[in-house]
Amino acid sequence: MRFTKMHGIGNDYVYVNCLEENVENPSELSIKVSDRHFGIGSDGLILIKPSEKADFEMEMYNADGSQGAMCGNGIRCVAKYVYDYGLTDKTSISVDTKSGIKYLELTVENGKVSLVKVNMGQPELEAAKIPMIYKKEKVISQPLGVNDDVYEVTAVSMGNPHAVVYMDEIEKLEIEKIGPYFEKHPAFPEGVNTEFVHVIDENTVEMRVWERGSGETLACGTGACAVAVACVLNGYTNDEVTVKLLGGDLKIFWDRKENLVYMTGPATVVFDGVIEA
């Protein structure tokens, strides 16, 4: 099976062109290829497939084999792949995902995609639809008991559930200890991605993320979008904000008039290869 390893600011996946390749057990394959010692090494597996509703379909799996609905960094890499590898010559494309069709604008330099702007759609704030079990309809800076501590949480879905937590300092956070307690918290029946955020100024924040099914990753595109929305809701930042992640920066803009979130960032090819599937 031919594959391409790509990353969006350090959030790396193994990509398979399913217009040419056939993957029968993607969940098992994701576990295999994601292993950083015995496999290729990645945060998961993304299949690029034909679509009757959009230009392409993206099907993503986490490192533990669970299927995800959407990946912001991953979809930028899908856009780069389909253009750079000659599957399309369009610089405006649509990609079908489990959380709906996303629309992408490609910036091309010297024949290759350098930046991708993604219309990530509308943020979902209603707790029941995130889904989150809570006493209030919307969870904006509300207390949540986690492992004998109480955290102020803002809950947002960007196609997958996010819990945003603000802190004065995140560098020394023992995220591997607290992250799993959020991920498996009974308030989140489908699990949750948790963003731990430090606000630098009204235009800039930094975050670390614990992703359900993958643990800490260098970046999470939907998480950065959820953080930007949460920051505006809590009065911390402007509508456009630079989100600094371990792997690099993303520009996020929440167009509140249209209620749409836009994410702009790079996508990078690491290498092509062949593996016995």
Automatic annotation (TrEMBL):
<feature type="site" description="Could be important to modulate the pK values of the two catalytic cysteine residues">
    <location>
        <position position="211"/>
    </location>
</feature>
<dbReference type="Pfam" id="PF01678">
    <property type="entry name" value="DAP_epimerase"/>
</dbReference>
<feature type="binding site">
    <location>
        <position position="11"/>
    </location>
    <ligand>
        <name>substrate</name>
    </ligand>
</feature>
<feature type="binding site">
    <location>
        <begin position="221"/>
        <end position="222"/>
    </location>
    <ligand>
        <name>substrate</name>
    </ligand>
</feature>
<feature type="binding site">
    <location>
        <position position="193"/>
    </location>
    <ligand>
        <name>substrate</name>
    </ligand>
</feature>
<feature type="binding site">
    <location>
        <position position="62"/>
    </location>
    <ligand>
        <name>substrate</name>
    </ligand>
</feature>
<feature type="active site">
    <location>
        <position position="71"/>
    </location>
</feature>
<comment type="similarity">
    <text>Belongs to the diaminopimelate epimerase family.</text>
</comment>
<feature type="active site" description="Proton acceptor">
    <location>
        <position position="220"/>
    </location>
</feature>
<keyword id="KW-0413">Isomerase</keyword>
<keyword id="KW-0028">Amino-acid biosynthesis</keyword>
<keyword id="KW-0963">Cytoplasm</keyword>
<feature type="binding site">
    <location>
        <begin position="72"/>
        <end position="73"/>
    </location>
    <ligand>
        <name>substrate</name>
    </ligand>
</feature>
<dbReference type="GO" id="GO:0008837">
    <property type="term" value="F:diaminopimelate epimerase activity"/>
</dbReference>
<comment type="function">
    <text>Catalyzes the stereoinversion of LL-2,6-diaminopimelate (L,L-DAP) to meso-diaminopimelate (meso-DAP), a precursor of L-lysine and an essential component of the bacterial peptidoglycan.</text>
</comment>
<feature type="binding site">
    <location>
        <begin position="211"/>
        <end position="212"/>
    </location>
    <ligand>
        <name>substrate</name>
    </ligand>
</feature>
<dbReference type="InterPro" id="IPR001653">
    <property type="entry name" value="DAP_epimerase_DapF"/>
</dbReference>
<feature type="binding site">
    <location>
        <position position="160"/>
    </location>
    <ligand>
        <name>substrate</name>
    </ligand>
</feature>
<comment type="pathway">
    <text>Amino-acid biosynthesis; L-lysine biosynthesis via DAP pathway; DL-2,6-diaminopimelate from LL-2,6-diaminopimelate: step 1/1.</text>
</comment>
<feature type="site" description="Could be important to modulate the pK values of the two catalytic cysteine residues">
    <location>
        <position position="162"/>
    </location>
</feature>
<keyword id="KW-0457">Lysine biosynthesis</keyword>
<feature type="active site" description="Proton donor">
    <location>
        <position position="71"/>
    </location>
</feature>
<dbReference type="InterPro" id="IPR018510">
    <property type="entry name" value="DAP_epimerase_AS"/>
</dbReference>
<protein>
    <recommendedName>
        <fullName>Diaminopimelate epimerase</fullName>
        <ecNumber>5.1.1.7</ecNumber>
    </recommendedName>
</protein>
<comment type="subunit">
    <text>Homodimer.</text>
</comment>
